[in-house]
């Protein structure tokens, strides 16, 4: 009741208030705008220009990237890996998130807290955790030695990278799905059940479409993070052929600024395109960054 | 209480996911306290590794703390007014600005760092000081403060409160500090905790921006993973976790309080 009155009041006063407060509001934005312009837009523009420069008659940086099977292969591998990680994280996190949002049982809050802690772990630490799991002296190596007589070591390959990316994607999906579940209309599910739909029908036809906006936007964020994740790949070994590592190698080992800049711009543009596409598909949703 | 078999299956799955998230962390904690990891815990527990790490790497811990605090202050100073402006304006321009602000987070950190390095790298004294890393951290963490503050501001009836203050003769600055800021304390606190946590763990940008004289904690961690023995690396990770977990607990408590406020 009181909130309706306040809303009506806001609407009535809105025009007058806005006119009086807007200049002040724009000034408040100035410091942030200055920092972003000086330290983000300007360097970015510089990077884009730098990528187009010629060097040693080898064509512009973009041309070198787009005509080299090595760089294209690394870009493709990074994209595929990020896509696979995103799908796996959505599946695992989706099941867990719906379960944790719907059921009430002893220890649930603790479980949620424990599952969301790793959200803030940096990539390097995640890489180390993967080494502890699947490295030369890891858990799986010990297990393999006991069961099959040989060490199972896959931390330093793409499988290890997949495990690491999955590790930091799952908490994000769980949090987003849990938030989205709160706003899901349960009566739709009950209606479907009462009309004779089985569990799977309800999941496929009611729950998944209801969660679709959250799934798409969260998936896009997971994809973007996996595309740019450098720390994990760096810890697991610099011979992995994913683009962030390739950029790092080109920059530090060959001091080839043009190609490094071009690769960064291409990687950033790809990531941004995916985020934009997801935004087009979903207009409004609450995503955990 | 009778539970269906579906519930049991889902619970088992969730516990499995939980194990995947927690077992490596526990292994790292144990490894950091074990005398010899390859012989197992039976070789005895010790704090020697932690002491050794502290001797070798304590400057990185202090630098990281200094960076995190400075970053939180900077982000507050530019972020709270920005959030206020964005909520107040709420037009096409402000939405475009919001997009722009989130971009440094969405873009690969390595690309942002490279751009900063290639543009400002030639200013020697700036390049070699810790302020260079601070710039990267501020860019990266800004949206994580602005977003929760904006969310709180949108829930409060700020226009009405401000109008009341204005009708009593308060100027814009007075209104901002005595009406707007106190009303979104919870959002600011949540944002600051998030900023500090992220700044402490930031690696993608920092690795490119650091110099041998400005090594932060995650940079030191990467260093120890590459060269030190497993126990030392684990002990170092243990120190990092000890710093970050209390922050995360506080963050969860605050966001729980914030979402309860939302339902009311």
UniProtKB/TrEMBL annotation, chain A:
Transmembrane regions: 26-51, 71-100, 112-134, 154-181, 202-234, 254-278
InterPro entries for the chain: MetI-like (IPR000515), MetI-like_sf (IPR035906)
Record-linked CDD domains: TM_PBP2
Subcellular localization, as worded in the UniProt entry: Cell inner membrane; Cell membrane
Keywords of this entry: Cell inner membrane, Cell membrane, Membrane, Transmembrane, Transmembrane helix, Transport
Domain ABC transmembrane type-1 residue range list: 75-278
Cellular component terms (Gene Ontology): plasma membrane
Principal cellular location given in the protein's record: membrane
Bilayer topology annotation: Multi-pass membrane protein
GO biological process assignments: transmembrane transport
Family, similarity comment: Belongs to the binding-protein-dependent transport system permease family.
Protein name, per record: ABC transporter permease
Lineage: Bacteria, Pseudomonadati, Pseudomonadota, Gammaproteobacteria, Pseudomonadales
Automatic annotation (TrEMBL), chain B:
Domain ABC transmembrane type-1: 61-251
Pfam families: BPD_transp_1
Database matches in InterPro entries: MetI-like (IPR000515), MetI-like_sf (IPR035906)
Entry-linked SUPFAM superfamilies: MetI-like
Protein name, as recorded: ABC transporter permease
Keywords: Cell inner membrane, Cell membrane, Membrane, Transmembrane, Transmembrane helix, Transport
Membrane association type: Multi-pass membrane protein
GO CC terms: plasma membrane
Compartment(s) where it occurs, according to its Swiss-Prot or TrEMBL record: Cell inner membrane; Cell membrane
Ranges annotated as spanning the membrane: 12-33, 67-87, 99-123, 129-146, 176-200, 233-254
Keyword Transport assigned: yes
Source organism per UniProt: Pseudomonas graminis
Family indicated by similarity: Belongs to the binding-protein-dependent transport system permease family.
PANTHER family linked to this entry: INNER MEMBRANE ABC TRANSPORTER PERMEASE PROTEIN YDCV
Gene Ontology BP, a term: transmembrane transport
Key word Chloroplast present: no
């Amino acid at each position: 009741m009181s909130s309706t009155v306040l809303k009506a009041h806001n609407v009535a006063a809105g025009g007058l208030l806005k006119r009086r407060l807007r200049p002040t509001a724009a000034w408040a934005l100035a410091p942030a705008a200055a920092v972003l312009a000086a330290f983000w837009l300007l360097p970015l523009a510089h990077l884009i220009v730098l990528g187009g420069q010629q060097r040693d008659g080898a064509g512009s940086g973009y041309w070198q990237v787009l005509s080299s099977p090595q760089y294209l292969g690394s870009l493709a591998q990074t994209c595929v890996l990020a896509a696979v990680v995103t799908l796996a994280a959505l599946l695992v996190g989706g099941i867990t998130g719906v379960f944790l949002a719907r059921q009430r049982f002893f220890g649930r809050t603790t479980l949620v807290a424990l599952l969301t802690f790793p959200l803030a772990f940096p990539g390097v630490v995640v890489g180390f955790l993967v080494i502890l799991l699947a490295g030369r002296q890891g858990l799986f190596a010990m297990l393999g030695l006991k069961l099959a007589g040989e060490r199972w070591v896959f931390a330093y390959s793409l499988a290890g990278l997949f495990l690491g990316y999955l590790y930091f994607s799952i908490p994000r999906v769980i949090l987003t799905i849990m938030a989205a579940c709160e706003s899901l209309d349960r009566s739709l599910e009950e209606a479907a059940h009462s009309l004779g739909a089985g569990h799977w029908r309800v999941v496929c036809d009611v729950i998944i479409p209801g969660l679709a906006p959250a799934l798409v936007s969260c998936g896009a964020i997971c994809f973007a993070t996996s595309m740019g994740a450098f720390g994990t790949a760096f810890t697991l070994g610099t011979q992995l052929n994913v683009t962030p590592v390739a950029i790092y190698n080109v920059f530090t080992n060959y001091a080839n600024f043009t190609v490094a800049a071009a690769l960064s711009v291409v990687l950033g543009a790809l990531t941004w395109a995916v985020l934009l596409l997801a935004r087009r598909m979903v207009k409004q949703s609450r995503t955990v960054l | 209480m009778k539970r269906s078999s579906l519930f049991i299956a889902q619970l088992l799955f969730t516990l499995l996911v939980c194990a995947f998230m927690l077992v490596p962390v526990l292994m790292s904690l144990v490894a950091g306290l074990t005398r010899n990891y390859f012989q197992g815990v039976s070789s005895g527990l010790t704090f020697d590794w932690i002491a050794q790490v502290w001797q070798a790497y304590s400057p990185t811990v202090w630098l990281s703390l200094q960076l995190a605090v400075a970053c939180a202050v900077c982000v507050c100073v530019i972020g709270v007014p920005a959030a206020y402006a964005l909520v107040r304006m709420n037009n096409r321009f402000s939405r475009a600005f919001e997009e722009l602000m989130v971009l440094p987070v969405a873009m690969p950190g390595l690309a942002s760092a490279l751009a900063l390095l290639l543009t400002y790298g030639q200013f020697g004294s700036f390049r070699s000081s810790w302020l260079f890393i601070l710039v990267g951290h501020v860019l990266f963490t800004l949206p994580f403060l602005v977003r929760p503050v904006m969310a709180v501001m949108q829930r409060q009836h700020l226009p009405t409160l401000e109008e009341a203050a204005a009708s009593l003769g308060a100027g814009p600055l007075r209104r901002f500090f005595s009406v707007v800021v106190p009303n979104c304390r919870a959002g600011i606190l949540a944002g600051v905790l998030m900023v500090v946590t992220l700044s402490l763990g930031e690696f993608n940008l920092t690795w490119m921006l650091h110099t041998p004289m400005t090594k932060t904690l995650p940079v030191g961690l990467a260093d120890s993973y590459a060269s030190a023995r497993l126990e030392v690396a684990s002990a170092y990770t243990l120190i990092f976790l000890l710093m970050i977990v209390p922050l995360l607990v506080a963050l969860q408590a605050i966001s729980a309080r914030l979402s309860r406020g939302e339902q009311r």
